[in-house]
Amino acid sequence: MAKLYKFPGGLKLEGHKTASTSQSISKASIPTRLFVPLNQSIGSPGECIVKKGQYVLKGELIARVTDYVAVPVHAPSSGTIIDIQKFPAAHASGLPCDVIIIEPDGKDEWMARKPLADINKLDPSELRNMIRCAVIVGLGGAAFPTFIKLNPVGHQIKTLILNGAECEPYISCDDMLMRERPDEILAGAKIMRHALNAESVIVAVEDNKPEAIASLQAASNDLGWVAIQSIPAIYPTGGERQLVKVLTGKDVPSQGLPLDLNIIVSNVATAAAVHHALDHQRPLISRIITVTGSGVSSPRNIEALIGTPMSDLIDMAGGYTENADRLIMGGPMMGITLKTDATPVVKASNCLLVQTPADHATEAISRACIRCGECVKVCPVKLLPQQLYWFSQSKNLDGLQAHHLFDCIECGCCSVVCPSHIPLVQYFRYGKSECWNKEQETIKSDRARERTEARTTRLERIKAEKKAQHAARAKKTAAASDDRQKEIQAAVTRSKAKKAENADTRTT
Ligand code: SF4
Ligand code: SF4
Q1: Ligand 2 center to 382 CA (angstroms)
Q2: Per-residue burial over 290-300, b = 16 or more CB atoms within 10 Å of its CB, e = otherwise
Q3: CATH entry 3.40.50.11540 includes domain 136-282
């Protein structure tokens, strides 16, 4: 058993996972409409390349990208494009985003796929390109393009950590994947290890998931390059920094990445997606999502096509219970509230949590801070949440930055323990957006100042050039006039001399 380490703070939280893990992963049927967002990663939205009325096959490219950190979009099923329009996004703002609406024909017919390549003979850069084309992004919720993560320029990767911690309450999609499909995860891990040329792979799983650990151990029995590591179930051990600390004892630098320690961390579901992409030429067009909470009748994990409306998944989970009043994409600690169940499943949708009033009863009774310091004790990144709260309230952006607001991982531990029920994380999100806005304003005004300065310099240069031209012209004119004077003078002299010569001739 490898030596494990502790990260600061953290909480033992009730899991609430049994309800959704009591049955196998269900497969969602193809919906009557698929709403496929053009933006499903952290980069810019894709550029739609299909037209209304066009027929597309499953897996066909429907939006391309030029932005390096963006990924293209593929049709999740065969059918006809019936519209391209705005639709509610799976985002806290709920603001509409561009979606391609497909009416599936029910045949679910794949586009032609190339024969399998021998992965071992491929160069890492070829592998990365195939992973990019297969639109793989991190499935732990961040949606960061995987091909970028697998391109650690200038680093020799020592360890690839596959994150199976899934520490947030209610979410169990990774747990079920590890229990039921460990071979897919390990096949993807093998490809990612090859792409990174990593020495070893660790699959880290919290010790409250014994079935997943047993399943992975059985599947990895003969593999010498991978270790299945059980770790203590303390929230938020699934955070990259916390996981690295637990497994290696090392601290990822402030504002840095595990890459700075020659470590890459990726989600277990992402590894399975890499396997499907390279071993079966299947782009990422579906994912497993946990549909759970006291607001649904029959919680479960469902494998659904990207673009499936959340309302379809609610129906599959037995429908809403009587008091259901809130939808959260993600878990109760870090998830975002959705405005409508018409919102489609996206690659970042790991959980749909349906709550009832009892789940958020304390929200309405926020009181003043009593400076008890409980929030400080649980912060996993050693911040001073109450101080950040004061700075957020007073919009002291310099204070926020000086107290490392951007190291906050928004885990919500401080909010959970606060006896005054202050929604601290909301203040920190607000504070971050204010800092970003200010930064954008500063960039804008810097650009405006640079433009003004450049214009002034340009005008002064033109003025100086004109002045110089004018002076040169004046000098030339003066010189010409000088020459003319001299010529006149010479002519007068010549004329006088001539006259004198003539007078002399007449006299003699
Ligand atoms: S836990 Fe709440 S009340 Fe206590 S110091 Fe922190 S913010 Fe203030
Ligand atoms: S939300 Fe931020 S400040 Fe609060 S405990 Fe987590 S990391 Fe610390």
Answers
A1: 8
A2: bbbbbbbebbb
A3: yes
